[in-house]
Specification:
Layout: H1 2-24, H2 35-39, E1 47-48, E2 78-83, E3 88-95, H3 99-112, E4 128-137, E5 140-149, E6 155-164, E7 167-175, H4 177-194
Antiparallel strand pairs: 1-2, 2-3, 3-7, 4-5, 5-6, 6-7
């Protein structure tokens, strides 16, 4: 009798331990993904730089409209940055505990992101326009928030928040159209390194 109870207790403890590891750890069978290596992509014409801390607000919005924010559960990011005289690209990545957690984080951001289009014109005097669209490519799915400021100092900026499996990546880029096309290339390279 004692032996049966002992085996049953060991089995329950083993199952609970396995469940706790699955929830707290990476969903990847080989352990957590190496985000630092995955983000270290080389770009001709861009030099590596230290990015600023991740912005916890995805965009500015009209007064009285709550701005979409990154989920505070993401905690500390793995980062990478690139710059030239005309362009910047900053990347932030997090490995969540499971794909469904990353999916929930993206779902919340996608639901709130349309409020970015309510943003007032640029404070620099140029006319500002925001667009918000869904995006997918290279195994990533998510949302793109684009800012176009016309006027004496025209500028284009893009914030892209995407996920693949348990990984969430935020890319913030600024430059011209050719520079922003590098975001697609960057995410494709990161996906290859994570694969």
């Amino acid at each position: 009798m004692r032996t049966a109870v002992g085996w049953a207790t060991a089995a329950v403890v083993g199952v609970l331990t396995a469940c706790a590891w699955t929830v707290a750890g990476s969903a990847s069978p080989g352990g957590p993904p190496d985000l630092e290596a995955a983000l270290s992509v080389q770009f001709p014409g861009l030099r590596p730089v230290d990015p600023p801390p991740p912005p916890w607000q995805l965009c500015t919005t009209a007064p009285g409209t709550r701005a979409p924010r990154l989920d505070p559960a993401l905690e500390e990011a793995v980062t990478s940055g690139y710059a030239s005289d005309e362009a910047t690209l900053y990347a932030y990545a997090w490995a969540t505990s499971a794909p469904m957690v990353a999916e929930a984080i993206l779902g919340q951001a996608e639901m709130e992101a349309p409020d970015c289009a309510s943003a007032p014109p640029s404070p620099g005097g140029g006319a500002g326009a925001w667009t918000v669209d869904g995006w997918s490519g290279s195994g990533w799915t998510g949302v793109t928030i684009r800012t176009v400021v016309s006027g004496p100092d025209p500028a284009i900026g893009e914030t892209r928040l995407v996920r693949a499996e348990e990984v969430v990546v935020l890319v913030i880029a600024a430059g011209d159209e050719a520079d922003l096309r590098r975001v697609d290339d960057y995410l494709a390279a990161v996906a290859d390194r994570l694969g």
